[in-house]
Amino acid sequence: MQTTVQSTIRFAGIGLHTGAPVNMSICPAPADHGIVFERTDIRLGNRRIPALYDRAEQSPLCTLIVNDAGVSVSTIEHVMAALVGCGVHNALVQIDGPEVPVLDGSAAPFVRGILSVGVKRLTAPIRVIEVLSTVEVHTSQGWARLAPGPGLTMDFHIDFADRAIGRQSKSLDLANGTFVRELCDSRTFCRAADVEAMRAAGKALGGTMENAVVVDGDAVLSPGGLRHSDEAVRHKMLDALGDLALAGAPILGHYEGHKAGHTLTNMLLRELFATPDGYRVRDCDIALAARLPGAGVEAHEIPAVA
């Protein structure tokens, strides 16, 4: 059955890119509601934005969704990954600013909040999106692919000049809690050489050594170093799971990304849904539900390092 959170969970912090303080609450919602963001700082007009792929606008450093009135919320990928990774299908995310709080730069604080209150089963079946044929998209920077598969599996490959990151690849079956155990605590990262350019462009204004991993050549500048030797590729997989959540239902298929980012994953979803014989939507039985990312996860599975 579909789920929502048992009770409201509150977070406070700053936006990674705006640097502005923000308060956010994940609230219970009924079946078939989906994940919807609501800008509580906007008093008039339509202030709700469904977290869906066709509401996303291109933004290379984060995932940005916009409604028909032009109201937006950005940097939603970490909380979206936490929701799908904890098996939450319905929630109203109330926020009093234009950007989700970055917290420690990972999804672990959101996961901890969700698992602390638990999930509530609703009275409608989970609908899943089953990939039936391979779809693929390319840009000059990389490519992404979705292929048929019995659950949600993921391969990701990255290649950075800085030796502290370098070339990294990882493969995971995201069934029943793998996201919480393996990915949720991996933080966003950047190259020290890019920080000044990002800030000149009005980005990363809230970035610090405490909410991002900063690398320079073969050195990790952030205090405490890495949480995982391959934390960078793990974080890219975290982002991809959050971006795939904009499909609006759990995906059954194999995702592969080669130097992929938010734009490529959104392009991939658009290609999938533009291919009528490339997928089908069906009810989820008990056996299949046990293979979904959030099945059976518990708070003790969050890595102690986070």
What is the structure about, briefly put?
The protein is α+β, with helices and mostly antiparallel strands. The protein is built from 7 helices and 20 strands. Strands 11, 12, 13, 14, 15, 19 and 20 form a 7-stranded mixed β-sheet that branches. It has a 5-stranded mixed β-sheet with strand order 2-3-9-4-5, with helices on one face.
Task: Give your account of this protein's structure.
With 306 residues, this protein is of the alpha+beta class. The chain has 2 domains: 3-121, Ribosomal Protein S5, domain 2 (2-Layer Sandwich); 127-301, lpxc deacetylase, domain 2 (lpxc deacetylase, domain 1, 2-Layer Sandwich). The protein is built from 7 helices and 20 strands. It has helices spanning 77-85, 108-117, 178-183, 192-200, 231-244, 262-273, 286-289, and strands at residues 3-5, 9-14, 21-27, 35-39, 48-50, 56-57, 64-66, 72-74, 91-95, 119-121, 127-131, 135-138, 143-147, 152-159, 167-173, 189-191, 213-216, 219-220, 251-258, 279-283. Strand 2 and strand 3 (21-27) form a beta hairpin. Belongs to the LpxC family. It catalyses: a UDP-3-O-[(3R)-3-hydroxyacyl]-N-acetyl-alpha-D-glucosamine + H2O = a UDP-3-O-[(3R)-3-hydroxyacyl]-alpha-D-glucosamine + acetate. Keywords: Acyltransferase, Hydrolase, Lipid A biosynthesis, Lipid biosynthesis, Lipid metabolism, Metal-binding, Transferase, Zinc. Zn(2+) binds at residues 78, 235, 239.
